Structure formats: C-alpha cells, structure tokens
Amino acid sequence: MIQIKQHWRLRCEHENIGFFRPATMTDPDIELPHDVLLGDDFSRRPGHTGEWPSQSTAPVPLDGSDAAFSPLQMGVVHDLDQLQSLLQQGIFRVLPLESMGPLEKSAGHECLVDAFRARTLHPMDDSAETAARLMVQLSKAGHNQHAVSQALLVAGVLSHVPVAELMEFEPQSQAVETLPADMANRLNVLPILREGDVLMVAMAEPMDAEHQHLIRFVTQCRVVAVLATKDDIQHAIARCYAMHSDSGDLESLAISEIETGSEEEEMRVWSEAETLARQAPIVRLVSTLLSDAVSRRASDIHIRPGQKTFEVLYRINGTLVSVRRLRRALLPPVVGRIKILASMNSSEHRLPQDGRIRISENGAGIDLRISIIPSQFGESVVIRVLARTADMRSLDAIGFEASDLARLRDLLRRSMGIVLVTGPTGSGKTTTLYAALQEVVRQNVNIITVEDPIEYELDNVIQIQVNPVIDFSFPKALRHILRHDPDVILIGEMRDYETAKIAVESALTGHLVFSTLHTNDAPSALVRLIEMGVEPYLIRSAVIGVLAQRLVRTNCPHCREIEPVDTLMRTNLDLGPDEVFWRGAGCDRCHGTGFSGRQAIYELLVMDKQLAERVDIGVSADVYRDSALASRMHSLPANGIKLARTGAVSLAEIYRACM
Ligand SMILES: [Zn+2]
Fold first, then answer.
1. Assuming Cys at both sites, which of 47, 133, 540, 558 could form a disulfide with 118, CB separation 3.0 to 4.6 Å?
2. Are 366 and 388 in contact (CB under 8 A)?
C-alpha cells in the first residue's frame, strides 16, 4: 500500500514534469494532476534501485532509445504476489485511469484502444515492439502522422502497465467482493487486488470513462487498470464469482468430521456422503470445478487429500496451480459426486477405480477420464481433461503475418480447389485446418469432413469417422459424401492414390477441399502428389494453395536472457552482427526448460500461373520453391527468423524446427 501511495504523492510533487501540462482538476476526490503519466519515467533508467526517487526526477524521453531497460521487467503477472512485488519494486508504473483524458485527447481514442489490444495480446512486448505493432495497425487504418507519433508515446507508457494472465491468477477475494457480480459481468472487468482505497481492476479496454466512474462510485476506491484480454476476463469473472457465492453454502453444510473409528461409524460417514453428493451445494461445487478447469484449459484436475483439508489443483500449461482448499469433511461427498457422474461404484472406497465423464461446455463435448486411488487421508482423484476444443484457435490466433493471412483468406473464399496443409506429425496441421474450416462455416455452406480420428467436434459441420475395420475407408466415405451435396469437404489425410484422385476430382467439380499431407515443406507437396500418381495437369488446376507449418516452443517470459549466436550462425542465417536474440534460461515457472507454450511458423505457397506452368513429372521441389519465392512466398526459415527477432522464440529453436 505504502508504495502505491508514495507513487501517487510523487506524481504530485513532480507535476510539471512530463509531456503534458497538468489539466484542470475535474474530480475533487483525486489529489493528483491528471496527466503526469507520461513524464518522469525514472523506472526505465539504468541501475534503477527499486526506490522511488525522492526529489528532482529529471524526465527521460520516451523514445525507446533507453536500451538498458531489460524486457524481463516488462510484462505479465501471474499471481497476486507478483503484482504486489512489482508495485513495491516500482518497476511498473500503474496507469491511473484519470490520466487517460489528456492522453486520449492527444493520441486519439482509436489509437489508445489499439494500443491496449496490442499490449494484452502481446504482453511481453517492450515499448519498441508495442510501438512497432501500433505503427503497422495505424498506418493500415489511415491514421495521420501525428496520431502515429502519439501512439509511440502511448506504447512507451503502456509497456509499464502489467498484463495479468488471468487463467492462472487467483484474485484477492477482498477485491472481488468489492464489486457485485452483475456489474463485473456487465462492464467485463474484474477487481484483482485491493490495497486501502486503491483497487486494481483487470480491464480489456480501460477507455470507457463512464465505466471508470461507475466502478469508482460503487466501490469508493480509486481505480487502477491492469490489462487482460477480454475472453480471459470473462472466464475469470464466471469462475471467481461462482466460487465466492458457493463458499457460504459449503461452510454451512452440516457434515460429520471424518474420524477413524469403528466400521459402523465409517459406514455412517459414507452413507451421509452419498446423500450429500446429490444435494445442490456439492453438485454445484463439482460442476464449477469441472467447467472452471475446462474454461481455463487445464489438462488435469487433481483432488489431493490432506490431513485437515483437501486441495484442488489444475494443471495449466504443464504447471500445477492450486485453485481451492476445502475442509476435509467435504471430500467424501465431492468424490461421491464424481463417482455418480462417472457411473462408478460409489460404495467402493478401498480399491482404485477408473471412469469417464462426458460433459458439454458451450456446445462442445469434452471427455473426462477419472482415476481414483485411496490414500491415507482419503480418496485421491485425478481427472484428465480431453477437451476436443481446447486447442481450437481462430486463424487470427495462429500467428500468421497480416499479408499471408489475407492470402490465405482469399483461398478460403474460393468455391473450388484444394488447400493442403503439410508438416510432420505434431506440427499443428489439424488446428490450422479447423481454424480455416471455422472461417468457412460463416459462409453458410454445407461442410462435410471425413476423418480418422475426429479430433475436434465442430458446430454446423457433418463429421464422419472412417472405420477400416468395417471397410469404411477414406475413398468409400468420400464417394458417399459427394452424393450428400457438400460445398466444402475436409479429408483428414491423403494417404493413397485413390483418396487423392477423388479429392482432385471433387475440387475440379466445384468443391473446396481441405486436406493434409506428410511433407516437410510446401513445394514438396506438389512432388508428393505426382509421386502418388495424380496427373500433373490435374494438380495444376486443382491445387490452389499449400501451407507448410511447424510448431516451435516459445521462450518462457520469466527467464528470458540474451541468446549467444556465433559468427558462423550469423553468416549462415544472414543476420546482422549486432542483432540481439533471446532464449529462456530456465526457471521454476518453466520447470527449467526455458519454454512456455508453442506457436506455429509456416510458409504459404499459392498456386499462380508461373508455378502452374512448371508442375510436371520429374520436376524437383526446388524448382517449385524458386517459383513460389519469386511470387511473395516467405520460406519457413525466413518466417522463423522473423519470429526470433521479436524475442518470442530462440534462434536455436527455429534452427531445430526447420533447418
Ligand atoms: Zn522460465
């Protein structure tokens, strides 16, 4: 608390520092000048000791030239401790919403909204990176030069506003209680930390003055924004408020405490648990725990019994995160509820059991695999979440360059032709195909897929699972679905000549066909089709595009360090002698791996006249490659190096994936 107060007081003392003069005070509650935000950027200074300077803080220009500031200090907070410690170290300046008035006037509303978005979507960007992204966006939207230069200033300021990773964040309950649930829902904001009369609120677009005033009025707190993405806030609101509303019910449940006693006593506890397992508070608790895990994209749910309490943990991005601790008396009814859902034997408490639950979340089916093992303090449960939609991404989220995304979308708008996605196993082909299919769904067409296996369930799409055992093969299924009047066909994989032939024929008779092939790069897909026996003249007119992709592991944001790159590597990859690259050093958060998450890199080959003329038997992939490169294709390695330049991945990882 002290630190925040000091911060605010400091602003008062140095009110004449900054790019903007103090504006007229409009709110008597706030003892601050409104717009000192852009000034006295002392936290960026090299050798900043973590103390707020007491006097005469000279302004440091926000021109991004201050390279001594390490990107490690920017970025994402995952829990309250991190947020608090950042505040205390003074590394992040929080953004008082009251300052937005003059800033907005100067930079323009649109520009600020864009800046917020760029910052929440790319939380690890430093100011130079944020500015670069803004420049691209603004120049496309036709903003004038003045707006762009202001945007640079805004980017500089925003890079000091923490972005909260709400998926892993447990907000302070005292803060959550400050704002009623319906209001949090309506404004799509979530209070996460309250210290004194300062309330830190996660917001996606903290630009709405009316919202700010409402929150301030209702909570009687000064509101300070922490950025988070819109979707994350929505999920977090649902989760946090649900937990707060049911904790009262759970506390008041009358349950006998478990004590090891006679067999008779134990029987009584179990039968009581079975009754409770069917009652509302337990039913709600278990269903909240399950749906919360799904919405946070947890891969596993652990229910871990202890001596007096039991703990619920989620595995998110490979890390176990504690989400709730409940009194142990609640364990038998909770486990009982899970057994009921999974149709397991509820009277068996001494032997391990396995089971399955199928739940539906937002219309998508999700399989839960349950393993229950008796332990010394009660039954321990691990639930594996097989969310078929967990990896579902939109095309925008896959990581395409804007120009390539436009080229790909152009392919998707066509009414006929084959679009191939290639890459080794585990390169994210299916994710991309489904993202593409989701775009096509919007065009209100009849889409049929033939798959083995069906990896995701899609709305408004007829999905067919092939079954070799009953001789329901790809070619057989395809011949049938062609009589089912499809506009778009997805073929899980082209493995044989017959499948490829039907795909080509369908494409030439007015269908848009998606499929995958196992080749290392895009040009090789053309070679492979010819090797499979498809006539070159058919390929020329049927294939409209090939996307090759790889998944690369992204650097852990918590332990980024400069990656050593030797001279030979620099020469080979045509890198500048002073270009800086980053890698993860390995820390607790990434379990020493240096990685967190994955991202796609790709190359997109679009069939054009020059390329089509070259497609023939015996032509090598290099010839196709040269032709495609000549017409705007960026190769996998080139796109990879571009990504490495942003600091998101290491050069070594790019090298591993595509050299
Ligand atoms: Zn790390």
1. 133
2. yes
CA distance 516 to 626: 22
Buried b or exposed e, range 226-254, using 16+ CB within 10 angstroms: bbbbeebbbbbbbbbbbbeebeeebeeee
Backbone Cα Rg of the chain: 28
Distance from residue 70's CA to the centre of ligand 1 (Å): 15
pLDDT mean over 371-387 = 87
Work out the number of other CB atoms within 10 angstroms of the CB of residue 618. 7
Which residues make beta-bridge pairs with 598?
553
Question: Separation of 320 CA from ligand 1 center, angstroms?
Answer: 15
> Ligand 1 centroid to 612 CA: how many Å?
47
Ligand 1 geometric centre to CA of 595 (Å): 6
What are the tens digits of pLDDT across the range 104-121? 666 777 777 777 887 888
Token representation of residue 218: 């209702």
Q: Which residue has the tokens 């409770």?
A: 276
pLDDT above 90 coverage of the chain, percent: 25
pTM of the predicted model as reported, rounded to 2 decimal places: 0.50
622: enclosing H helix or E strand: helix 621-630
What 3-state class would DSSP assign to 364?
strand
Q: How many angstroms separate the Cα of 288 from the Cα of each of 47, 238, 314, 320, 336?
A: 47, 9, 13, 18, 16
74 Cα: distance to centroid of ligand 1 (angstroms): 14
What does the block give as tokens for 174?
């005292």
**Vertex 519, ends 513 and 523: CA angle to 5°?**
80
What pLDDT, on the 0 to 100 scale, is given for residue 52?
28
Mean pLDDT over all residues of the chain?
77
- CA–CA gap between residue 391 and residue 377 (Å, rounded): 36
State how far Cα 76 lies from the chain centre: 13
Q: Give the amino acid at 465.
A: Q
The Å distance, Cα 87 to ligand 1 centre, comes to: 21
Q: Which two tokens stand for residue 185?
A: 């829902």
- DSSP assignments along 2-45, one per residue: HHHHHHHHHHHHTTT-SSSPPPPP--TT--S-TTGGGS--GGGS
Give the single-character DSSP code of 299.
S
How far apart CA 35 and CA 106 sit, in angstroms, is 11
Token pair of 104 as six digits: 């907005």
Q: Is the pLDDT of residue 164 over 50?
A: yes
